[in-house]
Amino acid sequence: MENQTINQIFELQYAMDTFYFLVSGALVMWMAAGFSMLEAGLVRSKNTTEILTKNVALFAISCIMFLVMGYELMYGGGGGTNFFLNSIDGGDDLVADALKSSAENGFGGDSVYSGASDFFFQVVFVATAMSIVSGAVAERMKLWAFLAFAVVMTGVIYPLEGSWTWGGQPVFGLFSLEFSDFAGSGIVHMAGAAAALAGVLLLGARKGKYGKNGEIRAIPGANMPLATLGTFILWMGWFGFNGGSVLKLGDISSAHTVAMVFLNTNAAAAGGAVGALILARILFGKADLTMLLNGALAGLVAITAGPDTPSPVEATLFGMIAGVIVVFSILSLDKMRIDDPVGAISVHGVVGFFGLMIVPLTNDGATFMGQLIGAGVIFGWVFGASLITWAVIKMLMGIRISEEEEAAGADITECGLEAYPEFTNTGK
Amino acid sequence: MKMVTAIIKPFKLDDVREALSEVGVNGVTVTEVKGFGRQKGHTELYRGAEYTVDFLPKVKIEAAISADMLDRTIEAIREVANSGKVGDGKIFISNLEEVIRIRTGESGREAI
Fold first, then answer.
1. Does A287 touch chain B (CB under 8 A)?
2. Does the residue A427 lie in any domain?
3. Is the ipTM reported for this complex over the cut 0.85?
4. A425 in a structural domain
5. What is the count of structural domains for chain A?
6. Distance, in angstroms, between A330 CA and closest chain B CA?
7. Residue from A216, A294, A335 to probe the interface with B (highest B Cβ count within 10 Å)
8. Is residue A423 part of a domain?
9. Residue by residue, what is the 3-state secondary structure of A318-337?
């Protein structure tokens, strides 16, 4: 009788942890909408349709590539049984197995949940990493070259570095990383930024962005309400990104950790927004909206590596520092003539690194050296592999649209459709 | 017949429309336009980089009127569109050869 009651509680716990994973994954999936709107707002209107096409297509490609091979490479442990998710179905012994693991782990141990929910939660992170690339190369990259890169990035480059970290595998079988990255400041965000940086370096700046005498020209984005909506959607999705990464809700201690993670994630975003707003006011004399948006996102990226250990005040301060860093980083990249229309390399790369390095301040389980080596491995691999991939694509099909096409806008030349068509005769 | 083309500040549009109705102008065409004159442009700021906006938004009003209404029309526009600052705009007058109402085929003063 008593056994039966405990089993029923375990079944409920399984259901709750699985449900929590799925809802968190759905929140992270919605971040794709955030990236789409943010990027659509920060490019010129002649490139709107193309950037939207890119964002939807990259999400779909990420999901398929991770299903086909990425998940196996990242979490398969070399077994090879989960290509095409062949063993994702729990089989006939699903209930008995789950009850057995639950009994072994007890209530405070590792969570036991559906393998399918795990895949769903992990796959949306891949798409997030890939979304970061799309903003940085906006307005000048060939659509199909970008999508070709997405196949390699989400099928191989990201899953491999993921296997060395979250997957628990040694780096190329050589050494294991002592490294703590809770929800992916480095593994997801800095990785996306590293791939973006490699692409931008081979791609060059948008035409007219930098003058001959070193002057930096503004290319204002077309739609500030969309950029703001996108930022808020990302902010909201981040609760799934960080909150879901607790991986477990079904006991008091885990539920409390989830609540702390939500609280700290929100606090860091608020700190980042205020930090960037005030710094921009001091530097430029005006309240710069797009810097404020980047500041909020920088706060979110910074806290992602360790949202569970800081106090709320520490989280706010970390966010605030990240908001300051991101403004200086955006200005510095422009001085180096690295053209990033949405600030993705600064927000996700520079601040992603910062996020990794502050983990040891509040988490005794992490060391600065471990964080530094982990960051170096992730950046080195993703940047190097991406550079080679971009270079091969450049050789095979070219990565940049022609000057004429750039002037006309990628909407017409890549998609054949304007975002806001007027004077058409389709009404007849 | 005369064609009166006035470039004014956008926020004066309602006042000008009312003033024109009062002096008996029966119809106008309005276009949002951009341009520069003595007012010049201004600078804006995007992600830390300043840029200049050389062309400022204005509203263009076109009205076809009979010649005897010209003075009243000009006076009406000047009275309400004048804010005393640079950038209030200009009024251009040109001769109008012919006017035809599409529906009835009337022409000349009848069509105005």
1. no
2. no
3. no
4. no
5. 1
6. 8
7. A216
8. no
9. HHHHHHHHHHHHHHHHHHCC
| Closest CA of chain A from B50, distance in Å | 7
- Domain segments of chain B as ranges: 2-111
User: Domain range for residue A41?
Assistant: 2-168+182-415
State the Cα–Cα distance between residues A126 and A128, nearest whole angstrom: 5
Q: Please name the fold of domain B2-111.
A: Alpha-Beta Plaits (3.30.70)
In tens, the pLDDT along A268-278 reads 999 999 999 99
| pLDDT exceeds cutoff 60 at A1 | no
Residues from chain B that touch A284, judged by Cβ atoms under 8 A, are 45, 48
List CB contacts (< 8 A) between B45 and chain A: 218, 284, 286, 288
**A208 interaction partners in chain B (CB closer than 8 Å):** none
Strand partners, A400: A141
Encoding tokens for residue A16? Answer: 């709750």
CATH value at residue A148: 1.10.3430.10
Give tens-digit pLDDT for A98-131.
888 888 887 777 778 899 999 999 999 999 999 9
CB A381 within 8 A of CB A178: no
